[in-house]
Write a structure and sequence with these properties.
Number of strands: 6
Distance between the termini: 41 Å
Order of helices and strands: HEEHEHEEEH
Structural class: alpha+beta
Radius of gyration: 19 Å
Oligomer: single chain
Largest sheet: 6 strands, mixed
Length: about 170
């Protein structure tokens, strides 16, 4: 039986690290939602960060639909991982908060992580990246992002032909 590891997070900085650890890698250009049942989350969902603000409502509607399918869900934490600035996706964070209010979900945080800063939307100032608490359980997080190991292996042409001609 697989032993479950419990990650405890205090504050937004540790929560960003915990969400990263739940995924098992450091996402890029992503919106990550960690659904909560009470005070506990057992997973996270990652979607590509929308590049056009006009699609925010549709993307958020889809994300809220998926989040509400989690049995017993009471809330979520959202983290936006961007290569740009936090202000580029402030509209997405606002749309998430509005939708959560509409469906009755508690929002633990709407946080962001950029190449130079981290913080929480609509709460205080952005903090320098070097002040982000260390990721919990570094042995649980692999190097790379969501695209790592996503390419298919190179197959020898002779083997490909033999497979195609097999009875």
């Amino acid at each position: 039986m697989t032993e479950k590891k419990v990650l405890k997070a205090e504050g937004v900085g540790e929560l960003i690290g915990a969400v990263t650890t739940l995924l098992g890698y450091m996402p890029t250009q992503s919106l990550v939602i960690a659904p909560f049942v009470g005070a506990r989350s057992e997973g996270a969902m990652r979607i590509d960060l929308p590049t056009d603000a006009e699609v925010y409502p549709a993307v958020v509607a889809e994300v809220m639909g998926l989040t509400c399918r989690v049995e017993g869900v009471t809330g979520f934490a959202a983290v936006i991982y961007t290569d740009g600035t936090e202000s580029e996706h402030e509209g997405l964070a606002a749309t998430l908060l509005s939708a959560a209010s509409f469906v009755g979900l508690h929002v633990a945080t709407t946080a962001f992580l950029t190449p130079t800063s981290w913080g929480e939307y609509f709460e205080g100032e952005a903090r320098p990246l070097d002040t982000l608490p260390a990721l919990p359980g570094p042995d649980l997080t692999r190097d790379g992002d969501q695209t790592s190991s996503a390419s298919l292996p190179v197959i020898d042409d002779a083997l490909r032909v033999r497979i195609l001609n097999a009875p």
